[in-house]
Model the fold of this input.
Amino acid sequence: MSLGITWVRDWVTESARVVAEHRVELITLDREIGDGDHGENLDRGFSAVMAKLGDLPPDAVPGDALKLVATTLISTVGGASGPLLGTAYLKASVAVGKEPELDGAALVAMLTAARDGAVLRGKAEVGDKTMIDSWTPAVDAAAAALADGRNEVEILQAAADAAAAGAESTEPLIAHKGRASYLGERAIGHRDPGAQSSALIIRAAADTAAADFVPAAGSEN
Ligand code: ADP
Ligand code: MG
Done:
């Protein structure tokens, strides 16, 4: 039971779709505590990724696709979120290396490396009202699910649920990083746009894994 390049392609494609679908919502969130460009930034970035995804060679492995996302987001997304997410995907691609299939441990390593990359780049901690408030609970939940013996889909679903709760948890917070930090208490009551978009991206990972998942031979269904 594992997830390979088909899943990563599907994940990236679904990420582009949900980012486009939630573009206005992300713009609105960023307008409330930032400069209103987050939905635009990510939509531009993932559209550029989609334009390049077909160029991947037939023998591409998950790490190749993750690296393509990284370099494309870094070069096309203006704003803080481009280098942050770009570094996350870059570290994720390094973590999975040349493995053609990702098992649960590889997925946890991938998510952990992504989070660590964003932290390395932006120096945010949990509670700073940033995308890290989605990523870190997602990593922790994925690691716990792995330790519980859950399968790949369940690991990603646990990550997605925790990321969604993490995004919601940013609402009562004061921001300590990014543009929203200039607002002080006026940021209270607003969800962080980057935490919300990261939760959408992590949900896309779980949804596509559930759709693609082929149970191991010999299992009942
Ligand atoms: P900008 O703030 O430059 O306009 P975006 O609007 O695209 O860039 O992205 C804003 C999001 O980036 C924020 O909602 C937050 O989640 C994230 N962010 C900003 N600074 C940091 C940081 N230092 N660490 C982690 N995430 C950050
Ligand atoms: Mg912005």
